[in-house]
Amino acid sequence: MLHKTLQDTVHDVAGGRPRGRQSPSASPRGKSVARAAVSACLALAAMGALPLSAQAAEFRSADIHPDDYPTVQAVRYMADLVKQRSNGKMTITVFSGSKLGSENDSIEQVKLGALTMARVSSAAMHNICQNTRVPSLPFLFRSTDHLHKVLDSDIGEQLLKSCEKAGFVGLAWYDSGSRSMYTRNKPIKTLADAKGLKIRVQQSDLSVAMVEAMGANATPMSMGEVYTSLKTGLVDAAENNFPSYESAHHYEVAKYFSLTEHTMTPEILIFSKRQWDKLSPQDQKILRDAAKESVPYMRKLWAEREDKSRQVVEKGGAQIVQVDKASFQQAMAPVYAKFVTTPEMKELVQRIQTME
Ligand code: GTR
What we know:
The chain is of the alpha/beta class. The chain contains 15 helices and eleven strands. The chain has a five-stranded mixed beta sheet, with helices on both faces. A four-stranded mixed beta sheet has the order 8-5-9-11. Helix 1 packs across helix 2 and helix 3 (70-85) runs antiparallel to helix 12 (281-315). The longest helix is centred in the C-terminal third of the chain and has 35 residues, at 281-315. The N and C termini lie far apart (50 Å). The structure holds beta-D-galactopyranuronic acid. One of its GO terms (cellular component) is outer membrane-bounded periplasmic space. GO terms for molecular function: carbohydrate binding.
């Protein structure tokens, strides 16, 4: 493919005659012009100076979730649109199930440009791009509708854009429902039940602070380590949404799922800024549009999966526990005080809270 498209470039460089007519390379002088052009293109491509738009682009995207998970399905949906609209010039292969490493590994690779895309939890971006903390703030959204309204508005765009300085083009937000606590030994019903527990959290200062504000001890670790940590009692509890609780089999080792619904941290689809800058505006538009169009598809899959996962865990012996939510909510003021620090964040939070 690369060869073919480079030839097309050579064709342009060497005179751009339509196919079927005698090309300059048919004459001895033409041949040497074409040869020189090929070498120049190869050299430029090797240096990364040739716009990717002149080459066939094969992108890889990482996800820690299994094949049937809504995030993986949504990026595959985007990939189909991109392939179709670029006439096969741009392809995206999604590597599911942590085949390309943990979320933190993928983020690092995307920053370097060694990997093109990753679908990660926005919590994994908190310490890299601080505005991504905003939609993870505890009890910020009143409902899924409220979350969607915010993420679909200019606020969502502003938050996605804020990662560019750190080397990431934010393409889309995906749903992740709300996260709740689950425990091995006894159910959490009120804030007092969380006190002193060792709770696994995502690798983010904000996630640590949320659990500490509940009076518990936070143990940040990657998702891949959680099952064993729960099973062996290294931690007493963890927190996640129903689909992750189910697909990662955490319900088998921590059966009390307490509906704290303390955060609605969304998923984010990131693209390497290094690679993005080499694409033509037309190709960038194809990618952006396709990512946006995968969002409603993802939301539909997500709603279905939340219901299905809830049924699976209940059948598997998990107990769904109602909690005194207000007691958790009241404990969160220090988290806001610590993390909503810049005028921009303060304004965003205020706009979100007052959005109808
Ligand atoms: C899930 C999320 C993953 C990962 C995981 C975790 O809800 O989809 O990307 O961040 O939570 O808790 O590590």
